[in-house]
Amino acid sequence: MRTPRSWRGGAELLFDGVKKHQVTLPGQEEPWDIRSLLVWIKKNLLKERPELFIQGDSVRPGILVLVNDADWELLGELDYQLQDQDSVLFISTLHGG
């Protein structure tokens, strides 16, 4: 499955400063959902400070997730099953003080 992934609002700093990744997810028995995508991202793309992006099996509070420009909360959050060519955007709304 080939899907673009993007980070904004400073989240890209956790991924070596790369704002956009075009990834091909490996085949697996179960369909890919956001939950399994986050595990894959943590293992394969996240370069530093995972606690600033992941909390438990989800993203930290303050990270907005959009799938094809729609809020993931409207799509089932972690259980949303990814489709080929879905665009997933992670935006950090957290700011230092």
TrEMBL record:
PTM annotation: C-terminal thiocarboxylation occurs in 2 steps, it is first acyl-adenylated (-COAMP) via the hesA/moeB/thiF part of MOCS3, then thiocarboxylated (-COSH) via the rhodanese domain of MOCS3.
Q: Which Pfam families match?
A: Urm1
Q: Which UniProt keywords apply?
A: Cytoplasm, Isopeptide bond, tRNA processing, Ubl conjugation pathway
PTM annotation (1-thioglycine): residues: G97
Matches recorded under InterPro entries: Beta-grasp_dom_sf, Mopterin_synth/thiamin_S_b, Urm1
What stretches pass through the bilayer? none
Q: What protein family is recorded?
A: Belongs to the URM1 family.
Assembly and interaction partners: Component of a complex at least composed of URM1, CTU2/NCS2 and CTU1/ATPBD3.
HAMAP family the UniProt entry points to: Urm1
What protein name is recorded for this chain? Ubiquitin-related modifier 1
- Record organism: Odocoileus virginianus
| Lineage of source species | Eukaryota, Metazoa, Chordata, Craniata, Vertebrata
Which gene is this protein's source?
URM1
